[in-house]
UniProtKB/TrEMBL annotation:
Domain F-box as annotated: residue spans: 2-48
Name of the protein described by the UniProt record: Phloem protein
Source organism phylogeny: Eukaryota, Viridiplantae, Streptophyta, Embryophyta, Tracheophyta
Organism: Helianthus annuus
Length: 282
């Protein structure tokens, strides 16, 4: 195939490669010097960049120093800060679909400005200048909003709360939290715990507190109970739910709340909410 492509004019080769995918175009760069030039062409990478990208990049807080559409694509794959540094935008490396992270400052968190309940602090492992740590509170509500026009159409997305749990945490798993993904047309609610499964701790709780745990769990909605999973950046993520982005532009609300247990809790560190394409599409 490479030999046949070499017989075509470079512009024609670039047009053909623009109909493939970013990974395919990257592989063709390694085949030969002539194909490399065609694969690096702006004709190819402009096709992989979304048509509404100029509107989104007008909100950039990061200085973009690029000399080609290919460089722009890969810089966006590494993510850039947006909206004064309170959001992060990136492109999925494989599909080119749009991804966002809303920092804790971009979220609505109950009592977040009350120092008795929460504290804002820097964290060297966060991409944002601040994270928020729960000191102590009874009712906790965390909500993020995004417009579907900022996402890729005809795609299934998942939303995740990015967290850490401090060594001094307490009361976080006395009752599952309720997670909700809602729009003007539908709403889906599930449940999730804030701490990863600790088998030793679970055995102790089963021995001494099982009746109380079962009573508390009856207060929340039924559904698949999720646990945090590890991320590659040292944080954990809790899936809030998934949703499909069609042709219609609308507002979307993503939330996690625990308001039924009446249990003091503390030690949760929140970086933000990530919205990214569902893995099956990669």
């Amino acid at each position: 195939m490479a030999t046949r492509l070499n017989m075509l004019p470079e512009d024609c080769i670039s047009t053909v490669l623009s109909l493939t995918s970013p990974p395919d175009a990257s592989r063709f760069m390694l085949v030969s010097s002539s194909l490399r030039s065609a694969a690096e062409s702006d004709i190819v990478w402009d096709r992989f960049l979304r048509s509404d990208l100029p509107r989104i990049l007008s909100r950039s807080h990061t200085q973009l120093n690029v000399s080609s559409k290919k460089e722009l694509y890969f810089q966006l794959c590494d993510s850039i800060l947006m909206d004064g540094g309170i959001r992060s935008f990136s492109l999925d490396k494989v599909s080119g679909r749009k991804c966002w992270i809303l920092s804790a400052r971009a979220l609505s968190i109950s009592s977040s400005n009350e120092p008795n309940h929460w504290t804002w602090t820097a964290n060297s492992t966060s991409r944002f200048s601040e994270v928020i740590e729960l000191k102590t509170i009874t009712n906790m509500e965390i909500e993020g909003r995004i417009q579907t026009e900022d996402l890729s159409r005809n795609s299934t997305y998942c939303a995740y709360l990015i967290v850490k749990v401090s060594d001094q945490s307490f009361g976080l798993d006395s009752i599952p939290c309720e997670t909700t993904i809602s729009s003007s047309t539908c709403s889906v609610t599930s449940i999730a715990y804030l701490c990863p499964l600790d088998e030793k701790k679970q055995q102790i709780e089963s021995l001494f507190f099982m009746n109380r745990r079962r009573m508390m769990e009856k207060r929340v909605v039924e559904g698949e109970c999720r646990r945090p999973s590890k991320r590659g950046d040292g944080w954990m993520e809790i899936e809030l739910g998934e949703f499909f982005v069609g042709e219609k532009s609308e507002g979307l609300k993503m939330s996690l709340m625990e308001v039924k247990g009446q249990q003091l809790k503390g030690g949760l560190i929140i970086q933000g909410i990530e919205v990214r394409p569902k893995c099956e599409q990669l």
